[in-house]
Structure to design on (151 residues):
């Protein structure tokens, strides 16, 4: 079963990490670490005037599963709103923890990680990039709200 977990699709996603690196001037940055294995993701974002992700970069040091989730995220996140990312995160957690089908729409590619549900020790590493992205978008939104209130 472990061979199925590391399918060609997972390994391909892990090997091709879109938007790798850091942004020079992010509006928001999120960082998450999976305590059990040490997988880590740092995500930078810039939002457009409608609150959609316009700029995205990720520095991910994770196992193949965490890298694969970050790969899907990198392919899909430009143009996404905070509610879309939150829904994808929640659907991915439900897929891993309670037999959910996984995200649909722009983040449907995360369904490739459905077999990770059988490996609870891998759940946190699978989620680091998604959680870091949520943190970065929320920081950017908060920063914009604070600036608007000060004006």
């Amino acid at each position: 079963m472990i061979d199925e977990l590391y399918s060609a699709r997972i390994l391909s996603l892990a090997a091709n990490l879109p938007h790798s690196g850091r942004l020079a001037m992010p509006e928001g940055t999120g960082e998450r670490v999976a305590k059990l294995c040490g997988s880590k993701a740092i995500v930078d974002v810039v939002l457009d005037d409608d609150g959609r992700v316009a700029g995205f970069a990720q520095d991910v040091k994770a196992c193949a599963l965490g890298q694969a989730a970050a790969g899907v995220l990198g392919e899909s996140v430009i143009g996404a709103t905070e509610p879309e990312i939150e829904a994808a995160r929640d659907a991915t957690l439900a897929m891993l923890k309670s037999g959910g089908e996984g995200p649909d729409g722009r983040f449907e590619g995360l369904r490739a990680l459905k077999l990770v549900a059988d490996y609870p020790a891998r759940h946190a590493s699978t989620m680091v990039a998604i959680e870091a992205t949520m943190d970065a978008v929320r920081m950017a939104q908060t920063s914009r709200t604070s600036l608007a209130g000060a004006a």
Notes: The mean pLDDT is 91. Helices lie at 2-5, 8-15, 64-76, 82-98, 123-150. The longest strand covers residues 53-61.
